[in-house]
Amino acid sequence: AAIRYISDQRLEPISLYYSAGRKFECNDGVGQMADADPSEQAVIIASERLTEQTNDWVRVAPNHVLTVTPELEVSVELIDVERRTTNALKGIRLVS
């Protein structure tokens, strides 16, 4: 599993991408995703795209968890987080 999370909603978390159902090859020093037989297929999870082909990669949205099964099935789900802030001047706990 991989998580793209940040508690401060005003900031953008570090990026997270995945590519599924193909294989990664390096030809003449250039990486690329290539079609693969089922026995060669992979799921690659990376903080940045490993190739310049943007259609090879899926960006994981902020505050989502990505999981991969042994059968290489990918799911991406929203993390349900209760956010709490404290208003120190009034002594009131706010839940947003």
Report on the architecture of this protein.
- A hairpin with a 4-residue loop joins strand 8 (84-87) and strand 9.
- The protein starts with a strand and ends with a strand.
- Strands 2, 3, 4 and 5 form a four-stranded antiparallel beta sheet that branches.
- 0% of the residues lie in helices and 46% in strands.
- Mean pLDDT is 85; it is low at 92-96.
- The protein is mainly beta and 96 residues long.
Topology:
Blueprint: E1 2-4, E2 17-27, E3 30-34, E4 42-46, E5 58-59, E6 64-68, E7 74-78, E8 84-87, E9 92-95
Antiparallel strand pairs: 1-6, 2-3, 2-4, 2-5, 6-7, 8-9
Alpha carbon gyration radius: 18 Å
User: What is the quaternary state of this protein?
Assistant: single chain
Mean pLDDT: 85
Largest sheet, strands/sense/barrel: 4 strands, antiparallel
User: Between the first and last Cα atoms, what is the distance in angstroms?
Assistant: 27 Å
Percent range for β-strand residues: over 45%
Class from helix and strand fractions? mainly beta
Q: Give the number of helices.
A: 0
Poorly predicted tracts of residues: 92-96
Helix content: under 10%
Q: What is the molecular shape?
A: flat
DSSP summary, beta strand count = 9
Order of helices and strands: EEEEEEEEE
Observed structural traits:
mainly beta, 96 residues, 9 strands, 4-stranded antiparallel β-sheet, 3-stranded antiparallel β-sheet
Sum this structure up briefly.
This protein has strands spanning 2-4, 17-27, 30-34, 42-46, 58-59, 64-68, 74-78, 84-87, 92-95. The protein is mainly β.
